[in-house]
Specification:
single chain, alpha+beta, archaeoglobus fulgidus dsm 4304 fold, 9-stranded mixed sheet, 9 strands, about 30% helix, about 25% strand, globular, RNA endonuclease activity producing 5'-phosphomonoesters, hydrolytic mechanism, nuclease, Endonuclease V
Length: about 250
């Protein structure tokens, strides 16, 4: 199979992103999203990939499904995968999403009653260079509501880790407090959220698919026992543990 030069590959991916973006739904589409306390929401998913340190090709793709609001484990899937697609900034989804989709498909085949009603993705959604991060990609292709949650600020389009940004972080006094991430054109693409009273470092929440930003932020906060929402935290922990157990690997990386 021929490999496209990077410039051609980027153009191809840009066309695919643009086509998928036309299917993106930013608003709430589910009844549970519009009820007090998210009544009717019973299953929340989390996905992540963990790599062996020093190895950018072999990874553990992880899916977990937790009960809501208890946040207890209902299902987990750990699968070693080989990533053959190159990493290019802004196009991470083309490298990782196929394996996350496969995990969701395995669940749908084996235990369809445990399919998550919303999926938390370790990465950005609309808060992305091209307003279509991995959470959007996974959401559109799976058809599931998705929320992007990043642990670090993606600096872009006038949103920078400036003194003003740090001042806004300091103004977050308690868990649930947030402020908008407004890019240069004036569009709000996400929010910085103080996820718990104990954690002063925010997380960055953005819409993936079929959910509004306000609902995504509220649900993320509701799923946080610690700084990172429990579905992502469990996916991260379990993928790392899988690598340690099966590959005698003590060092893992994101």
């Amino acid at each position: 199979m021929s490999v496209l030069p990077q410039e051609e590959l980027i153009k191809k991916w840009e066309r695919e992103q643009d086509a998928l973006k036309q299917q993106l739904v930013e608003g709430d589409t589910e009844e549970w999203q519009q009820t007090s306390g998210f009544a009717g929401l019973e299953r929340v998913g989390g996905v992540d990939l963990s790599f062996i340190k020093g190895d950018e090709v072999n990874a553990c793709a992880q899916l977990v499904v937790l009960s809501y609001p208890q946040l207890e484990l209902l299902y987990e899937d750990s699968q070693m995968v080989t990533l053959t697609t190159p990493y290019i900034a802004g196009f991470l989804a083309f490298r990782e999403t196929p394996f996350l989709l496969e995990a969701l498909q395995r669940l749908k085949t084996k235990q369809p009653s445990l399919m998550p009603q919303v999926v938390f993705v370790d990465g950005n959604g609309l808060f992305h260079y091209r307003e279509f991060g991995v959470a959007c990609h996974l959401g559109v292709l799976s058809g599931l509501p998705c929320v992007g949650v990043a642990k670090n600020l993606l600096q872009m389009q006038g949103v920078l880790r400036s003194e003003e940004h740090l001042s806004q972080i300091r103004a977050l006094k308690k868990g649930g407090d947030s402020f908008p991430l407004t890019v240069a054109c004036g569009r709000v693409l996400g929010k910085a959220l103080r996820s718990s009273d104990k954690s002063i470092k925010p997380i960055y929440v953005s819409v993936g698919h079929r959910i509004s930003l306000d609902t995504a932020v509220q649900l993320t906060h509701a799923c946080c026992r610690y700084r990172v929402p429990e579905p992502i935290r469990q996916a991260d922990m379990r993928s790392r543990e899988y690598l340690r157990k099966h590959y005698q690997c003590l060092d893992t990386q994101k």
